[in-house]
């Protein structure tokens, strides 16, 4: 994608491809980016999500009954009649079932514009949605096209297939903003980079990579072990089981198997018995006295990543003195590392090739430089 032209002793790069940086803002606790659709371009606010694959936008024909909006934010619906380049396909319907909501609609195609770069993008125009609290017009799914809405190609795979990605990778710095009850939409400085990655700016030390599993659907790698060290109570919990770890920016917390949630909590300042009967952890118990390490990746090529208790605090459980429990449980042997984990790292997803037939996917995480760590803004 990048042609090098040698002029005398200097090497000048003529880039036909691009690196696209999308700013990440926080609207009422949701992390969003902006993508324009149509001609003339109309900007849409989208929740970016590595745990799903579809770009969808509420359609202008969707009534307040079918697409209720109690988010407190106005939405900009997609209006195909207002775009010279848009097309909708009522004969190609589809629906998507998320953990937190459901949408259905039809295939659409139009010009997408980000950072002065335009390309044709397929997406879903939504005519029914239960995401009534979503302070955005839709989702920007970043996982595999193989599990996307019918006839759509996920946003970044589409960018690669249009030869617009300088490198077959994207990078994520979620930003330093943390939502609170007092300030649910804090200033944020996150960046989602397509076609390159910005670890030189954000990361402290090297990005440590692990290979992702095939077939590629979501960003999934083998689980190798969980350690919780607690220097106050002198405990060192270590456990492993057969499962996978999924990196999902669309989940707020860390999901662990139901079978292990009780012993995991017993290594923290709380007990599962208390948490499950509504006990609200004090944010002041999220300290550097305890830490959580996860070992991931294929056997023989695994890597260990660590966060301290203070890095897992999500204020706003009724009030800002109380924080949400960092672990949820689910009926699966897999672990989901959600936003509360991922926000502490610079994340790189490297596809190895822009051609789906030659993908060699890996995901890497590097700790953030201290000035980029998320913190509550006073
Ligand atoms: C939403 O739009 C309405 C009508 O244009 C406007 O009165 C209102 O202030 C907007 N609300 C927000 C939160 O921007
Ligand atoms: C969404 O909610 C806002 C604020 O309550 C309201 O102004 C707006 O009309 C609603 N609907 C849409 C489609 O934005
Ligand atoms: C969609 O755009 C058309 C053409 O500009 C306009 O007539 C129509 O009112 C718009 N629909 C909505 C729901 O905004
Ligand atoms: C949708 O996908 C099907 C199956 O791959 C294909 O036959 C059809 O032509 C596609 N339609 C559009 C409008 O892209
Ligand atoms: C240590 O254990 C005590 C008693 O179980 C508990 O109250 C306290 O929160 C624990 N402290 C830490 C840092 O885990």
Automatic annotation (TrEMBL):
Any Gene Ontology biological process: proteolysis
UniProt GO molecular function: aspartic-type endopeptidase activity
Keywords from the UniProt entry: Aspartyl protease, Hydrolase, Protease, Signal
Signal peptide: 1-17
UniProt-listed Pfam families: Asp (PF00026)
Gene Ontology CC: one annotated term: fungal-type vacuole
Residue intervals of the Peptidase A1 domain: 31-366
Catalytic residues of the enzyme: 49, 248
Superkingdom of origin organism: Eukaryota
Family of this protein: Belongs to the peptidase A1 family.
Name of this protein: Peptidase A1 domain-containing protein
Biological classification of the source: Eukaryota, Fungi, Dikarya, Basidiomycota, Agaricomycotina
């Amino acid at each position: 994608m990048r042609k090098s032209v040698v002029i005398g002793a200097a090497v000048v790069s003529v880039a036909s491809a691009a690196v696209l940086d999308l700013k990440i803002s926080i609207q009422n606790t949701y992390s969003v980016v902006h993508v324009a659709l149509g001609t003339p371009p109309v900007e849409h606010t989208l929740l970016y999500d590595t745990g799903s694959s579809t770009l969808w936008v509420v359609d202008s024909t969707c009534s307040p009954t079918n697409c209720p909006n109690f988010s407190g934010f106005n939405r900009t619906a997609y209006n195909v009649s207002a775009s010279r380049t848009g097309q909708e396909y009522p004969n190609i319907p589809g629906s998507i079932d998320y953990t937190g909501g459901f949408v259905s609609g039809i295939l659409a195609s139009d010009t997408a514009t980000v950072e002065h770069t335009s390309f044709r993008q397929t997406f879903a125009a939504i005519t029914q949605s239960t995401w009534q609290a979503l302070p955005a017009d839709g989702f920007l799914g970043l996982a595999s096209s193989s599990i996307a809405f019918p006839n759509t190609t996920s946003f970044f795979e589409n960018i690669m297939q249009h030869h617009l990605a300088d490198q077959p990778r994207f990078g994520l710095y979620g930003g330093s903003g943390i939502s609170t009850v007092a300030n649910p939409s804090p200033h944020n400085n996150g960046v989602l980079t397509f076609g390159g990655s910005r670890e030189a700016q954000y990361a402290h030390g090297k990005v440590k990579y692990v290979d992702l599993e095939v077939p590629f659907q979501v960003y999934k790698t083998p689980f190798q072990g969980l350690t919780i060290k607690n220097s106050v109570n002198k405990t060192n919990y270590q456990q492993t089981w057969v499962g996978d770890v999924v990196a999902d920016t669309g989940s707020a917390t860390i999901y662990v198997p139901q079978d292990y949630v009780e012993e995991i909590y017993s290594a923290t300042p709380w007990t599962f018995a208390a948490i499950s009967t509504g006990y609200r952890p004090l944010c002041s118990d999220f300290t550097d006295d305890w830490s959580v390490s996860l070992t991931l990746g294929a056997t023989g090529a695994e890597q260990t990543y660590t966060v301290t208790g203070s890095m897992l605090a999500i204020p706003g459980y009724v009030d800002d003195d109380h924080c949400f429990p960092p672990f949820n449980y689910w009926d699966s042997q897999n672990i989901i590392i959600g936003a509360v984990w991922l926000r502490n790292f610079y994340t790189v997803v490297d596809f190895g090739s822009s051609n789906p037939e030659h993908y060699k996917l890996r995901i890497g995480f590097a700790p953030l430089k201290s000035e980029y760590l998320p913190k509550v803004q006073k």
